[in-house]
């Protein structure tokens, strides 16, 4: 089903979204003086600027605990549904997502929180479902993290219960392995459609099949070195969706450093990923992912190589280069990108004034 009033279904062949701005330092593990602090005034400014510039969506990260280090990377974060609700009140056009950990939110409570956000945004709220992976976050919540396969089973029941709350007019019971809900009522319903836009970024087989059944868009990584492989993946995913009578668009994520010249952009990227790095935080990120000196040969070199890789797919260059990279992604069948910036407010104007018009010329955006 198409939700035409959402910007995610507007006429632009390649959609643009800002990713990670609810977290301190965004997605770049850096200690630069200009790093993003994710304070409310800056977030509000970013959202208004993005709305005026014609950006299509804003996607926050569901993060509960920082990674430590000198800057406590992503240690200051706004809860994403309330963050989205506030920003929806200040914007008119773009879709704003909440990134919601299914195991941490009671369905009855969160269904209504999302309805509230959706009414504030006149139907522009979107849901990014995550099942979680970060053990210290679960320890902090007192909720036991499930085995990987069970996480998506739980999320399946969770979203099915919520969909009923959004649509059932009569009181209902919901009895599954994970939930025993009695006599459930929920009013008001969503602003107008039966569902907000739902997205997910599970990379495992079970995560992907969850996305096929429940999501309108799915996020995957783009491989520039093998565009053909990326294109095959997108095509297979869409075919699998159409086999079950669903339409699921595929998006990707990355980090943009755009400067007037390619040289300036690459110099800044080098600075960001060498002397600008908060290495203490990198060690903690790696520890959480199970990478340590004992199990990793050349660990020190691995640490040095990590920042440019961890930042997401790098899109570094002049407005021409950035536009051409987006074109490559579009050629692979991708519907858009959620990208992060070191400083969203300082860096967005160049993208709006120089990259977006180039995207129009390349046929990726309509005027
Ligand atoms: C674009 C994107 C956004 C994501 N956002 C979050 C997030 O905010 N919080 C989180 O815990 N995981 C997030 N993830 C992780 C995924 O939800 C997922 O857990 C991960 O890709 C591993 O896949 P799996 O769950 O199928 O094993 C994100 C991944 C991507 C690619």
**H/E series:** EHEHEHEHHEEEHEHEHHHEHEH
Q: Name the overall outline.
A: globular
* Rounded average pLDDT: 95
Biggest sheet overview: 8 strands, parallel, barrel
What oligomeric state do these chains adopt?
A: single chain
Number of domains: 1
| Weakly predicted, low-confidence segments | none
CATH class: Alpha Beta
Question: Strand order, biggest sheet?
Answer: 1-2-3-4-7-8-9-11
What's the β-strand tally? 11
Ligands, ions, cofactors: flavin mononucleotide
Whole-angstrom Rg: 20 Å
What is the CATH topology?
Answer: TIM Barrel
The fourth-level CATH homologous superfamily is Luciferase-like domain
Q: Overview of this structure, please?
A:
This protein is of the alpha/beta class and 367 residues long. The protein has a single domain, classed as TIM Barrel (Alpha-Beta Barrel). Helix content is 43%, strand content 16%. The chain is built from 12 helices and 11 strands. The protein has helices at 40-53, 80-89, 107-120, 135-141, 148-167, 205-214, 227-243, 262-272, 279-288, 299-310, 319-331, 344-361, and strands spanning 15-19, 57-59, 95-101, 125-130, 172-175, 180-184, 197-200, 217-220, 249-258, 313-317, 336-340. The strands form 2 sheets. Strands 1-2-3-4-7-8-9-11 form an 8-stranded parallel β-barrel, surrounded by 7 helices. The protein has a two-stranded antiparallel sheet with strand order 5-6. A hairpin with a 4-residue loop joins β5 (172-175) and β6. The protein is globular. The model has no long low-confidence stretch (mean pLDDT 95). The structure holds flavin mononucleotide.
């Amino acid at each position: 089903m198409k939700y035409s009033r959402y910007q995610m279904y507007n006429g632009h062949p390649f959609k643009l979204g800002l990713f990670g701005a609810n977290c301190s330092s965004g997605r770049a593990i850096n200690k630069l003086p200009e790093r993003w602090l994710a304070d409310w005034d800056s977030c509000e400014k970013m959202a208004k600027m993005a709305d005026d510039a014609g950006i299509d969506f804003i996607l926050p990260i569901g993060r509960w605990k920082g990674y430590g280090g000198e800057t406590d990377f992503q240690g200051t974060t706004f809860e994403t549904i309330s963050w989205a609700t506030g920003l929806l009140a200040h914007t008119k056009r773009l879709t704003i997502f909440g990134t919601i950990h299914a195991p941490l939110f009671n369905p009855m409570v969160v269904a209504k929180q999302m309805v509230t956000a959706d009414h504030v945004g006149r139907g522009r709220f979107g849901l990014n479902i995550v099942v979680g992976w970060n053990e210290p976050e679960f320890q902090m919540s007192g909720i036991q993290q499930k085995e990987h396969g069970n996480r998506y089973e739980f999320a399946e029941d969770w979203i099915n219960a919520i969909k009923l709350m959004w649509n059932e007019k009569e009181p209902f019971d919901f009895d599954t392995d994970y939930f025993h809900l009695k006599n459930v009522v929920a009013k008001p319903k969503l602003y107008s459609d039966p569902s907000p836009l739902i997205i997910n970024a599970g990379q495992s087989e079970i995560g992907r099949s969850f996305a096929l059944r429940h999501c309108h868009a799915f996020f995957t990584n783009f491989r520039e070195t093998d565009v053909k492989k990326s294109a095959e993946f997108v095509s297979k995913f869409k075919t699998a969706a159409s086999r079950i009578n669903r339409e699921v668009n595929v998006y990707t994520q990355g980090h943009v450093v755009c400067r007037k010249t390619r040289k300036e952009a690459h110099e800044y990227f080098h600075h960001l990923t060498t002397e600008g790095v908060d290495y203490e935080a990198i060690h903690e990120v790696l520890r959480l992912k199970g990478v340590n000196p004992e199990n990793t040969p050349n660990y020190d070199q691995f640490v040095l190589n990590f920042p440019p890789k961890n930042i997401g797919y790098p899109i570094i260059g002049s407005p021409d280069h950035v536009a051409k990279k987006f074109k490559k992604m579009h050629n692979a069948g991708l519907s858009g990108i959620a990208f992060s910036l070191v400083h969203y407010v300082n860096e967005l104007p160049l993208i709006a004034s120089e990259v977006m018009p180039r995207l129009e010329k390349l046929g990726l955006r309509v005027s």
